[in-house]
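Contributing new records

If you add data, match the layout below exactly. Sequence lines come first and carry their own label; structure lines follow with theirs. Keep one chain per record. Anything else will be rejected by the validation script.
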Amino acid sequence: MPAVATDVGGTAEIIEPDTTGTLVAPDDRDGLVVALLSLAGNAEMRRRMGTMARERIVKHYSLPDTLSAYNRVYHDALA
């Protein structure tokens, strides 16, 4: 499923604008409404972006990779 989110924190690291979802500026209510309505009204865009989002998550955020990254963080913190 494609995402619509505000461009704060680490969201830009996960969501590729116009590929896996849409990022809007914080406090941009109108931009958020436009992004949501755009996805709601375009099944092909939802399908394409959803497919790309799933592929990106599977490739970059698999459970083994995520666990390994957490393990490195904890190991480094305890070293």
